[in-house]
Protein transport protein Sec24C isoform X2 (Clupea harengus), 1272 residues
Amino acid sequence: MNVNQQPHMASPYGPSQPGYQGYPQAPHGGQHMAGGYPGQYPPYNGPTSAYQPGAPVPGPMCAPPTSGAPPISAPQAYGQYGGGQALNGPPPSAAPTQRPPVSQPYTPAPMNLSTPQSSYSQPFAGPPTSMQQMTNQMAGMQVGPAPPAGTAPGYAMPPNSQPPVSGTYTSTASHPSFPPTSIASPHPAAGDGVPPGPPQSYYGGPPHAQQPFPTSSAPPPAFSTASATPPAAAAPAPAVSQASQAFPGGPPHAQPQPPPQQQQQLPPFSAAGPTPPQQTPFSSGAPQAAPHPASQHLYGGPPPPQGAPQQQQQAGFPRPSPPTSQPSSSTTAAATTNSGFPGGPPQSSHPYPGVTMPQQQHSPFHSAPQLSGPLPPPPAAGGFPPQGSAPGMQGPPLQHPSMSGPPMSQANHVAPGSTQPGMPPPMGPATGGMPGPPTQPGMQGYPPQQNGAFGQMRAPQPGYPGPYPGQHPGQHPGQQNFGAPPQAPASAPPAQKRLDPDSIPSPIQVIEDDRVNKSTEPFTTGVRGQAPPLVTTNFQVKDQGNASPRFVRCTAYNVPCTSDMAKQSQVPLAAIIKPLATLPPDETPPYIVDHGESGPIRCNRCKAYMCPYMQFIEGGRRFQCGFCSCVTEVPPNYFQHLDHTGKRVDCYDRPELSMGSYEFLATVDYCKNNKLPQPPAFIFLIDVSYNAVRSGMVGIVCQELKTLLDYLPRENPDVPSAVRVGFVTYNKVLHFYNVKASLAQPQMMVVSDVADMFVPLLDGFLVNVNESRVVIESLLDQIPEMFADTRETETVFGPVIQAGLEALKAADCAGKLFVFHTSLPIAEAPGKLKNREDKKQVGTDKEKALFQPQVSFYSNLAKECVAQGCCVDLFLFPNQYVDVATLGVVPTSTGGSIYKYTYFQAQSDQERFLHDLRRDVQKPMGFDAVMRVRTSTGIRATDFFGSFYMSNTTDVELAGLDCDKTITVEFRHDDKLSEDTGALMQCAVLYTSCCGQRRLRVHNMAVNCCAQLADLYRNCETDTIINFFAKYAYRSMLNSPTKNVRDILVNQCAQILACYRKNCASPSSAGQLILPECMKLLPVYLNCVLKSDVLHPAADTSLDDRAYLRQLLSCMDASESHVFFYPRLLPLHKMDTESDALPLAIRNSEERLSKGGLYLLETGLNLFLWVGASAQQELLQNVFGTTAFGQIDPNMTCLPELDNPFSKKLRDIISAFRDQRSRYMKLMVVKQDDKLELIFKHFLVEDKNNSGGASYVDFLCHMHKEIRQLLS
């Protein structure tokens, strides 16, 4: 931080507040600060109470160092840099090392308590109390598991055969690194007349697209997972490999750097002190950067003063500029542009000394790499804010591009200094890096690192000239000459580094490792508490006493023994249950057990059903319940002798004694009104208003139903379906049709009194398809003709559902209504709605009302439907707002589904709609269902999520339950659990099958109990946890502002990881971010939930879309929510047409795309085929039948069927993907730089998005800061 700071920022830090207000985005477009450094981070001025900045010196900023290498103090044996020390020389550059295919083993660095440390001691216990301490803490982040080399304390620079080059920074040079990422899309310089971009706010604050991720005190995270996890900075911000990486060789070079573009900022973390206005810290009340007026509605802060003088802007009012994914072409003078601060940077040029962005080196993030090491702090000169180096300027010099990368043993280190292509080169004060005295011996709280481990002073390396200009020979490179005049300007400033995305946990690597390790052997469920393979792995299940993970997945397979332990860890205890899940062909569906008139055997007290957890005693005459320990007599007809182990001799002949899942045939006692049920009925209710007819929907539905009625659900494919059908059309009035087999033509009856709905005919409305086929087909031919010339635009909706319900009541059966509807029901009738869409309420406290139903009518109607077993599926074809939040109440309360086809066009949407309709009609389902979850003593089910209705606290009532629906159950402790017995859960679903048979499906699950937190963290399932968090958050939106919901999620995730760090990880520097092995993807997936359109909508996301996605997610299983939040991205140009294997997926980031490539992105709801502008002609010919990029039709929704192996395999892949999902995914062809590309990029979830969502790197840094705050 500059000692001679120019215009001082008025109270640079506001007090930190609960929750964070927004991720300010990484600066785009290379706006440099006037003083030279890009100001991504504000200077950290310590906690308010301890440090109050004095007035800044009015003079000029220190000039950059002239050039030169770090001081030489002693020979250095090993070329590893000290922790995150920044050099004051020309920007280094390095050739990125190749990322090994799999992660490297992690070996923690040994600690040597006797090694002398630097001269500043920093307790790790509490927050730093002065600027000096803060910056000290900030200096030595390191990523990487390799043991440090022994050396004398001191930061040494890596040896290099080449002398340091000094030269002026030029923005045109290319850098040997990676393609630009869209994570922080570059923005034009603030002053160049580009209109501001879309509002970019994260977490409610007013961040801007080019604002830095607020960090007030934390360096980028160092990472380690497993028992340790990603390394982070010792200082407040997570330093992910701050300089600590060893690069054999290489003085700093003034290699020209690419234009500052998409760098990923580390979050400025405002840990305690006030935050400077220029960045929007994650704290709610600090003075925030004023949002651009256009983005006002998103972030509610005051607009920046218009036409404010340059100096005022420098004090931190960012101006957003439009994001672009291409690197900005040139960044000319450091003084003209400033990164993240319109009109010039805040004068403290490097708020976060020591927060470096490690270069993008290819290093697999391994399960246990650790970053560690305190960063040496910059000194503060009397009363001035400490001088800052450029954000992320830290770190050792990179080796010359010709040098080889870091040793393999350090594969997990983040390469310390290379700038990303497009990173703003820092320019600035004479002491470019982390100025400040070396850290002190014996840091309190953690043993000092041994032998030049991260964060220590290093001896000099051969090949480095003497000390930097203006430095005393023995002075540390980052150390300032207090009181000395500023040094002469240097020719090139140190380069800014960015956190290397390859050094942080990769979802693709984790998915691939699991696939390789767990897809070969069948998963047997006999071992209690065994976590299953990931949802992304194809595996076979053998049921040996616990339910298959296809039916039940738990968040944790080791449950804490006590509620205190559960509260401490904050890991949710929940299960996602999919009772009627379809199984792959190589697995046996649950067996059906018939006990005759006596019915299933149950415990006398808790009514649990017979299962493998019941213990037979007294020679088999009685059994003790595994849930409540009550002893029950065995009925004489069920008696069997025990073998020498105490098991019944017929144990393996009875599914209920040896399997985790099975079905019982229910007796009449389990039926409504004690009488066996009728087969269910399907009623089709078709909107025939003007919009429905004009769009072609009416004709398509009628044509499809003629063939679809042959595929009604049935148990035995050889027997006709027992399901009866009926037909209604409607606009402002309802038309019922008599399709009795004896009629020559169908008869229509109109009910215009919609206020008092009734069914005008009983006989002839619900009919058997085979008997009435001729009449039904005649009707379906006539409907489109009858209403072809309609001019009626208004519709009703409530009476339509009432009509179907009344018909089912009259027939005394359960059933399903298929409603095809187009517009907001504004006609006079019960359930009439008004248009309440109001974009001004989005992001405010009033927003939650928009997700609640407008009127109570539909909630009451849903209750009646559930009582009758009437399930409603809604197909919407809206051209404008239809209030999905209200219309969806009945479907989501009855176990139904909502399908939405906005701007439906017969030509492009017909295929998707018909696939959805066919699957919806044919899929296996149960009717009039009730589900109850029983648990063993000590825990109980307390909360439920999904599409159902509950009239009491224990019974989940579902008018319909199909094979895609899940019910998520949360458990809480009500007593202590025992490690010996574990915890048991039994889910029993009573339902009517499609042939009218009453059945009970039972799923049993036993998990372990643990008294140690480490055991809990060893056996969790991240995909299930994220599924639970998303459902919890989406439901919470009904009662809380979305900002609060996001804050709660981040806080809970931080508590989970902080608890692990505090109680399970081996002691390490506080700057290290440590993640449990099985949760190392929790931050990336959680960020995807936070950025989802529901919680953080883009400007063009409609309220209806958000309500639709909200309701859709409530029933998703973990495999569907996984691809929904983290889409699958395949590089098709790498596909091998000879083998059946898919190409290995790549990470969801724009920097992973190549212009010459062809990529398939699967989101669970859509498929995107992205075509690079430089794709080979042969590739285009094989896929599209044309060699010219310009001739590809971006409107095509299906690929041409070409006679070549590539085309065939690609179409097979698309078909296979669609078969895996419950909804048909429409294919969209996206040409590079085409208008559709914005939509495609929205799903590249590791990048920053246009609506203000943070990139993965930025969010990880933010999480690390939250964890540090909790630990301190």
Notes: Residues 680-923 form a domain with the Rossmann fold fold (CATH 3.40.50.410).
